[in-house]
## 1
Amino acid sequence: MAGRRRVAVAMSGGVDSSVAAALLLGRGCDVTGLSMRLWQERSNGNGDLDGLSAARLVCRHLGIPHRVVDLRQEFLREVVDYFVSEYARGRTPNPCLRCNRIIKFGLLREHARQLECDFLATGHYARIQRVGAAHRLLRAADSGKDQSYVLYALREHQLTSLLFPLGNHTKAQVRTMARARALPAADRPESQDVCFLRDNDYRRFLAERLPGAIRPGPIYDLHGRQLGEHRGLPFYTVGQREGLGISGPRPLYVKSLDLARNALIAGFAEELGRDGLIAAEMSYVSGQELPVASAVEAKIRYRARPVPARVWPLTGRRARVLFQSPLRDITPGQAVVLYRGDWLLGGGIISQAIDRVPHTGYK
């Protein structure tokens, strides 16, 4: 990196963003810590304020300025309300995807520009590779910590002004670097799955926010026989085994949610596989759709392993993705993310699972 570049680091108060700031400072960058104040449920603790205080302590330790951007209303409208509305539609959203796209790499990046910063850096475990004049988004070197999945909506023009300093490091190395620098966040625990919940209990949260949508209803098998009663569709997700309340000689899993009938469809493990999916809101890092029947590796959840697939772009920013072998747990509301090796190509939000279409099957 030539010259002394101005970098805003998205500071959460955790170890990853703290080490990212320290590494950039060590490279001679002019670093500013930039923290978001986001909406959170009221709790007995200070919640988000604890994170802001931790970030302030780290910045003071590093000798860099610290600024706070109040995005509570934007976060409530764009992330929390979306989270609730998706569950009301019988889908299972990943709020981090929307937060990254709209809040962190949208609104926060704009605040960094207003501070005349050349780059926004985060503590994500992912890499950016420059190939000639092009920029590619890659998986992290540490496959066990790779967070590229939640970054799939980034576009190439955004990558030119983003930095991921941790992309070539393991989590263990990051902890070691934090302790070596005596960073206040060195031993801070990982953040919880859904950051705005006071107790990480999304069912309790949905029951309070969606009292009209939490209605008991029938559980059917694939032949239409009623097996039991569910407690409310928002409490279940595709592939779930626990909590069905049905005893039998073999485990049953959630196969699908039928919102029109307020019914849950259950099946045995071997009945869950589907051949593919339709995705909406497709986004490609390069800005260009993939050629018809492109061979890729696809991930349908953050922790899922990538599997061979082919992609057919459709009208209206949609795509058909067919897997080499049937796949379980294809969940509307989650993202399907497309890779070629370490190279992230793009992704979209799963709208429905499908079976193979005649004459367009996987080849």
## 2
Amino acid sequence: MSKRYDYRGIQQWVKRIFEAYPFSEQSSTAIAQSIVATDLFGIESHGVQRLAMYDRKIRAGDIRVGAAAEVIRESPVSAVIDGHEGMGQLVAIKAMELAIKKAEQSGIGIVSVRHSNHYGMAGYYAKMASKKKMLGISATNSNPFLIPTHAMRPFLGSNPIAFAMPAAPHDFLYDAATTVVSLGKIEIYAKQKKSIPGAWAVDNKNRISRDARTLQRNLSHVPKIGGMLPVGGQGEDNGGYKGFGNALLVEILTSILSQGNLSADLGDGRAKGISHFFAAIDLHLFGDANKITDALSQMLERIRRLPPEPGKKIYIHGDKEADALEERVKNGIPIDLKTLNEMTALSDRLQVPYQQYL
């Protein structure tokens, strides 16, 4: 059961929560904007329902309040940043801002990050570049959840990647985990006491499991019990090895390039700090940027106008997010009762007033 709340009030509430840890006002504002933007885009798995996770990590010392991300290697078109285990959103914003600055100066900017934390919605950072009329890419590794094809235990993370590019009527935005779904999706089903509708994850004997609460417990266990399937599913018949390969590519772009921690070594106390990858590319490198943007817009519109299945609509990546943004700005963001209870309990402990936001 969910109820709608004005996003501006929720954003202010989230800001005050992070100020209570204490993060600076500027940092708290940036974190809150990122988290609530995710809910506005309809990606509830990475929005306010993640506050309890961030709280656990802050209290455990996995997220270091006040840590300053540091550029440790740099060229005119690239950089490596050590996040020093700071808040992932803050590290990611700094990294993409640097990538955009380099792209403005040299045409392309690539920034690799190590020792960071969960940064929320990958597409948020890719869109930072597309808002500047650039092509943006954002990717991250994570705790090990993905079971490689024919393996019996996880090694790679859900390893999402996002790609954004200017287009009309709104930017193209591809943002997806390389597992069938993200862990956050399973958490939402567990909170709502719903069964998993598809073949998303397996138990310790590699059997498909549809019990969301059991899966959530198993994936939180150290060591993990079972794991999540790659895009394409179990085995090779439906191309699961391709999803496994995509996850491996993200692992190379993130942990290998940054010389950070592998997904396989996270989540069991052996290592802390995940890795990210960011790129910004100026379209003028390839010619008239307006013509390139127009060509993309025209291609996407041709796809939208293809004959659809009966009763179905063809969506381009970014369409659903744009629709959700328009609707939720007007009608508020939905928050389920369990998440709301987590937020109020967290606020009570941190002595953050919240009644005015409900």
